[in-house]
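Below is how a single chain appears once it has passed through the pipeline. First comes the sequence as given, then the structure the pipeline wrote out for it. We keep one example in the README because the format questions we get most often are answered faster by looking than by reading.
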Amino acid sequence: MAKKKLCTAISIVLGAAMLTAGCTSAPEGEKPSIPDNTQAPATVSYPLKAGSTLTSWQTLNNNLLSVNIENMAETIFGQELEKQTGVKVTYTHPPVGQTTEKFNLMVASNELPDVVEYTWTAYPGGPEKAIKDKVILPLNDIIDQYAPNLKQIIESDPELARQLKTDSGQYYVFPMLREAPVQLVYEGPVLRKDWLDELGLPVPTTIDEWYITLKAFKEKKNVAAPFTARYAGGKWDLEDTFIGAFQTSNGFYLDDQGKVHYGPYDPQFKDALELLRKWYQEGLIDKDFAIPDSDGKTLDTKITSGISGATVGLIGGGIGRWLDTMKTKDPAFDLVGAPYPVLNKGEKAFIGQRDFKYNPSGSAAISASSKHVETAARWLDYAYSEEGKMLFNYGIEGESYTVENEVPKFTDLILNNKDLNVQQILSQYSKQAGPYLTDKHRNTNTYPQQDEAAQVWSDTEAVKHMLPKFITPTPEESAQAAKIETDLNSYKEEMFVKFIMGKESLDDFEKYQQQLKTIGVEKVIAIYQSAYDRYLKR
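Resulting structure:
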């Protein structure tokens, strides 16, 4: 898989589904109109014609900011992408924490760059409305004409094709895609493995075993907060740990018959609250669990200082970071990913953290005002070519990766850099998130505990019960749901904390359910059910 210039030509016969390769060049000029796919497609080779330029709006990875790189064009990746595609891109990045605000201002000004990376499913009214508002272009004809690599991926995966369409059948993004199941699961229950070994305890799998473990941490290790988890974004980040054991969720989900539910409105949600309340009263849950921890530093301190022995954490920003921190401070420090707990031994977890192959948050659309539609499409499509895939995933062969037995491997420059952590250096050589296909072999984990945790957390029925992020309520439905959910989430979280802390009696759970109904929970459930039913018909 030696590094070389990609030279691909495409010949599409009308009505045929497959593409063939060769070598040609892009036309000098282009118009902002959507291509007429009744004509023979333009052929292409990379790099594109000299002088090709684009503008792109996208968030900048925080790891780059941590090493004082403020623009994608300054990175080795950005420079290599320009070299390989022949397209000079002017990047604009919203300030950290202001993505939505800056996006809204940009749309209101009607001054959009050629390419915009955004969570287009979050656009008011959804991507269909964004197309109707002439903010972005429908991509069906553009993909047919100018994006053969993405076209081939879509045609080979009908379920993915469904995910990428609006209800009316219009493609709207060049998507962020993941190949391997373990890439879709990156968060779950984590415990101090060295403490479990010291106390002669197994990794807990059931609610009862978790109770025994947390009691042991408190009584035998004298731990102040046996279980803790980050509180951020207005909610406690449990990812349904403990709650899922009661066949419900902390948000919207699907039952086995494909019916939409709002977990906190379920009768069995009371059972989950009773459990968490009991543990809180016995001092097994961090008494300060509801204090916001936006940057995660409080959680880091509690895990690495021995204040807590269990949490819900990330593979990289949790297990990896904590093991790194303690490597020299306490060589005995060890962590293990535990299964999402169930009530009875041998059961499979009802739900847990899991993404879909298509991730709306890292995907790119072409703006309706772009005067460089063909260049934008070909530049974006390069990420889905074989050579583009290697650059986006691994960087530069011989520098950031090598190939052994046809499998890419990161070099010591990435995995054992003396000055920067893996994510900091890798973000300079590759794109951490965005519109490309993540290679199934890509793995930035530096500890076996991380790989093992991903496997353990993957063993749930989440794939059946997660409500897809890319369902699209109509503009009217979307406006209704957004208004109701603001009040719904605020009230639900307020009561969630009060129930657990004992500030509100669980005898009032039916009153709480009635208030959710008054706010409009059943209306939102009906909206999402309609959107999900339409999704299935795409």
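The chain has a mean pLDDT of 91.

See the next section for the split statistics.
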